[in-house]
Structure formats: structure tokens, C-alpha cells
Amino acid sequence: MPELKIRKNVANGVERSRAKAVTPSTSQSLYAKRTQVYPKRVNGTFRKLKWFILIVLLGIYYITPWIRWDRGPLAPNQAVLIDFENARFYFFFIEIWPQEIYYLTGLLILAALGLFLATALFGRVWCGYACPQTIWTDLFMAVERFFEGDRNARIRLDKAKWSASKVAKKTAKHAVWIYISMLTGGAWILYFHDAPTIARDLLLGHAPLTAYTFLAIMTFVTYALAGFMREQVCTFMCPWPRIQAAMIDDEALNVVYRHDRGEPRGAHKKGEAWDGRGDCIGCRQCIAVCPTGIVIRDGAQPECIGCALCIDACDEIMVKIGRPKGLIYYDTDANIERRLRGEKDEYNLFRPRILIYSAVFLAVGAVMLYSLLNRSELDMNVLRDRIPNFVRLSDGSIRNGYTVKILNKATHERELTLEAVGLDGVKISVVGLKKTDGSYTLYAPADQVLDYKAYLAITDVSKMPDSKVFFLRITDTKTGEVTQTETMFITGKRK
User: Fold this and answer.
1) Domain limits of the chain?
2) How far apart are CA 128 and CA 107, in angstroms?
3) To 10 degrees, what angle do helices 45-63 and 309-321 make?
């Protein structure tokens, strides 16, 4: 009996152990709770540079839609306008039509190559200074500090119980955040409509529903990303931290902690000698000012956006303790290794990847510039009728029909003549037009696309093949500008 009792107790203990092992309270979560980051205010060279870039870029974003550009009486006078209604993209003196989408493709390629080149040279300089997420997050954090104070004050405020003062500060902060977010969304809409008109309509409630929809979307996105998600966007949503590893090497400049100079680190008292120890005193100010909350001393990390605020914080401490600046600075991993070996610093800007990125960037830019400078303001598309392919007329001649689309990109009306080049004995007729002096005059309104229906007839096709390739050509009667399109005439003969 005692033995049976012992066995039962052991069995029950095993079962309790198994149950405890699978209890949800002891299972490990796949997701970690976010640790709130409270970046500290810092002053210094790179902080001033970031403020300057922020003001310039936000100024460009908010002011650009209001700039006017005279394109003539029939064209919009907004300098930068994405006109979906009329299928145009205006950028100062440049007007892009739908069939010229390759210009936008070229700009995207140049932007990607420029980002690759900047990353290969200076690491995540884009993320730290020019990324929209960084710009608006910096602006939102400035508002937060204005109402709630610096790092320690914000930490105390968040831990404190709710009071009238806390409610007032939080309400004021979020009110300004929402206002900035609405301005951001409103400015985005201005790029797709005439700015003064749509701004007035938005305020009076007369704007289209799509305008209010996108205003709400952009407001919410800006408010959420810059106000709440912040470093989470850079860490988890943005793919660039993972891609940049392929762009950089040991010779790329990055914000780095110079462990060759800082180690071994530790607390330092005034008057103590510096022999046998590094310059880092473990003050953790580089962590306190970091907008993503990382430890720069741990080396390269995906979370680091290269904002260089840790440089300003560390330089301030170095001045206070009487040590040289630059313990954290822009440097290369290769240089740190060279100094450990007692070698001199080198900065190799002419590495293979730099040369390749630069060459491709210049090549694409040159092609786009050449194409833009030689861009014609007169274009034509020709669509041949296929049902039927041809018609045999009562006099025995063969007739083909064509839809001629004329694109007049100029700001003035054109008078054009139409002719068939490479097709002998052809008679041309244009629906709705009469001949003048033996030819048809086609009118092309300014900045518009106009369709004409043209018929070409040939009486004797006995010496022609089943199909004959030729060109339909239009010529401006005033300027002599010419454009032509290859097409085909079907005779209907069997081979």
C-alpha cells in the first residue's frame, strides 16, 4: 500500500509538472512590449544642421504649391501640379504627358541611385537628416518638449497621476500635433489641385469628397507615425535598414564609437590621471539623446538612423572633462582597425561601388537631360482600322482608314498639313475637312490631343505587295516642325 501511494504521488507530480509546463502563464511571448523612448534635448553642430535641413525641407513642402508659373492663358499657372483630370504633370517649365511617363521612371531611378551613392559614402545620412519620418518626428518632439519639458520632466509626467496640469499639457500637445498633421495632409492635396482654389473650398466645405478623404488619411498617418510609432517605423516598418547592409563596406563613413580611444571605460573623478584607461566615462548621454534608444557603443545596428545627435552629446561631455572631442564621430570601421595597428587614417572615396553608382547616375541623368532638351512639342499617334482591314471602292481602288491623334504640347494653336511618305499614287481625305489649295489643313488646339479620321485610297495596287509600310507625316505650316509615324497600308492582295 505505501508503495502504491508513492507511485500515485509521483504520477500526480509528473502530471502537475507537465500541466505547469504548458500553462499559458509560463509560455514565452513572441512579441516584446515597446519600451518608451524619451530623447533628451541636445545642442551642437549636428543638431543645428538638422534644424536647418528640417526648416528648408518643410519650407519647400509647404510653400511649393503656392508658387505661380505663367504658361499662357489656357494652361494652369501653378508651378508644380499633378493634374489627374487633364492627365498632366507640371514642374515649372516642364510639362509631362501620360506617354512620357519614362521621365518619372528616370527620376525614380536617379533617386534610388542617389540614395545608394549617399549611403555608400556616408551611411544612413538620408535617414538621419532628410527622411520624412525623421523630419516630422523631430518637429513633433519639439512640440512635446515645449509643453511637457525635457527628458526627465516627461518621464515624471508620464508616471504621475492624472491631474488638471497633466491633462492640460497632454491636450495642448496633441492639439498642436493634430494641427500640424492637418497642415501636412492639406499641403499634400494642394499638389493635385489649384492651391488657392482647393484651400478655399476645403475651408468652406465645397471641396470634393476625395479631397477630404485624403486629408483625413494623411492627417491620421502623420499623427500616428510621428506622434506615436516614431522609432518603431525605422526599426520594423522601413526596409532600408536591411537593404543598406548591401550598400556599405568598411570604408563607408558612419556614426561610430571609437572604441580604440574610448576603452577601457569607466567612471572618472576630477583630478584622476587618464593613463591606462579610455576617454569614455560611461555617462550614457549618447543613449539619452538617441531618438531610437540604442547604445552606439555596441557598434553598427539596424535601429541607428545616423542622426549624429550622440556626437553632439558626447562632445559636450568631452569638453566638460577636458578630453578631445570626437570620441563618437563620423569615421570608418577600417580606420578604427588601422589605428589599432598603429597606421594612419585613410579615406578612400574612389572605391569600385562608388565609381559604379556615380557612373550609372551620371549616365541616366545625361540620357534624361538629352531627351528633355530635344523633346518635341508636337507628336502624333496613328491607329489603322482593322475591322475591316481594307475596303474596295466602286471604282476599284483600295481604301484604308486611320485614326490620327495629334498631340500639341505647345501653348499656341497649330496649323498642320498631312501627307503620306513612301506611298505612291495615294489620295488622302479627312472627315469633316475640305481641301484648301489641294491639301487638308489640320488644326491642333494648344495643349490638347485631337483626333482626325483620315482615309487613304490607291487606285492601282497591282504592283504593290499585300502590305506596304509607309509614314504618315504632319508638318507645322508656320514653324516647319515635322513629326511622322510608321504605319501600314493593306492592299488585300493574296500572296
Assistant:
1) 55-239, 249-340, 378-490
2) 22
3) 150
Q: Which ranges of 244-395 does DSSP label H, i.e. alpha helix?
A: 259-262, 285-288, 309-321, 333-340, 352-373
Q: What is the pTM of this model?
A: 0.80
By CB neighbour count within 10 A (0-12 exposed, 13-18 middle, 19+ buried), where does 120 fall? buried
Look up residue 427 and give its amino acid.
K
Distance of alpha carbon 294 from alpha carbon 303, whole angstroms: 7
Any bridge partners for residue 483, and if so which? 474
Sequence-distant (≥ 6) Cβ neighbours of residue 432 within 8 angstroms: 452, 453
Number of alpha carbons in the 13 Å side-chain half-sphere of residue 92:
1
pLDDT in tens, 332-391: 888 888 888 888 888 888 888 999 999 999 999 999 999 888 888 888 899 999 888 899
CB 472 within 8 A of CB 402: yes
Rounded CA gap, 482 and 149, in Å? 68
How close are the terminal C-alpha atoms of the chain, in Å?
108
CA distances from 110 to 96, 191, 359 (A): 17, 22, 11
Fold for the domain defined by 378-490: Immunoglobulin-like (2.60.40)
**451 DSSP β-pair partners:** 405
Name the grid cell of 436: 484648301
3-state secondary structure of 448: strand
The pLDDT of 23-35, averaged and rounded, is 61
Count of beta carbons in the 10 Å neighbourhood of residue 240: 16
Give, for 406, the enclosing helix (H) or strand (E): strand 398-408
Distance CA 296, CA 280 (A): 12
Q: How many CB atoms lie within 10 A of CB 193?
A: 24
Closest listed residue to residue 184, CA positions, set 219, 160, 149 = 219
Residue for cell digits 516627461?
A: 154
DSSP state of 68: B
Residues 6+ apart with CB under 8 A from 388: none
What is the C-alpha to C-alpha distance for residues 426 and 421, in angstroms, rounded to an integer? 10
